[in-house]
Amino acid sequence: MISVIIPVYKNWDLLAICLKSLADQTFPQNQFEIVLVNNDPKSGIPENFNLPSNTRVINQMLPGSYSARNKGMIDAKGEVFVFTDSDCIPELNWLEKGMDLISSGYDLVGGEMNLFKPEGGGDLAYIYESRFGFNQRRNVLEKGQSITANLFCKKEVVNTVGPFPEDLMSGGDFVWTQKATSSGFRIAFGEDVIVKHPSRKSISELVKKKKRTIGGMYTRFYKSYSPLQKLRFSIFFIRPHLSIFTYKGLSIMEKTKLFFATWYVECVGMKEMLLLDFNKKSAERS
Q1: What are the C-alpha distances in Å from 17 to residues 12, 32, 82, 89, 268?
Q2: Which of 111, 119, 210, 270 is positioned for an S-S bond with 193, CB 3.0–4.6 A?
Q3: What would the mean pLDDT of 160-167 be, rounded to a whole number?
Q4: Average pLDDT over the chain, rounded to whole?
């Protein structure tokens, strides 16, 4: 039995597309369950929402996707846990290909992420994320880590490593998978274990994402830095990305727009980091 664990936070429209893909998997439906963890129980499941027959819905009152995933792992019945997000669309052979690697002896699999531009999405936001978004090959092969938008792991890994860090709103997947691989568990990069993910639609959405990920970075390492380390990090973080003008496949206008958009988003991120450091606000969820 495989347990596919998906945290849900007010994202039922996109979740419906994700569930349709899971219902059409080449992997036998009677060999996996879907555990939806509603992280906003006040919202509830929309009326007439279609749930596949192998789906269970549980609630997690504690905020954060990692709290939701931990709750899902406690309730899951499978010997292999598979994670994705409510806005993701797995390829139809996703479970089959991922389980091939697990069956060959790997303890974890970090699969490939393919970005696509959603309906109504802007070209600049798509270009930004296609250049600076998911790099699962590097995550897995060079750093021994993976995002939870596309992650397989044996239950024994969870029993050894323990739960995801619930104090993080972002980056907890990297912390957890690095802990697993540092403990000796083997991780594979699933080049054909593919999940599609929509790019953000606008620069404002990219800014919201940056603020959320900055919260994770602050908790994971920045807050423990010395003043000199913080200064060096800040200067490096907001440096102009002149290398953008060497990118292939983009026009000079696209490169120019991407350059200023990137600089703007990074400056907003650094401002967020400073506000967190001076206790002017708490880390954002979304």
Answers
A1: 9, 18, 18, 7, 32
A2: 111
A3: 92
A4: 93
Tokens of 75: 């309730």
Whole-angstrom Cα distance, residue 19 to residue 24? 9
Residue 285: pLDDT over 70? no
- Smallest CA-to-CA distance from 261 within 135, 129, 118, 170 is with 129
Instruction: Give the DSSP per-residue string, 115-168.
Output: EEPPTT--HHHHHHHHHHS--HHHHHHHHS---TTSEEEEHHHHHHH-SPPTT-
Contact predicate 76/1, CB 8 Å: no
DSSP state of 200: P
Q: Where are the alpha helices (DSSP H) in the chain?
A: 12-23, 65-75, 94-103, 123-132, 136-143, 155-161, 172-182, 203-220, 227-237, 252-277
Cα 61 to Cα 68: distance, rounded to the nearest angstrom = 8
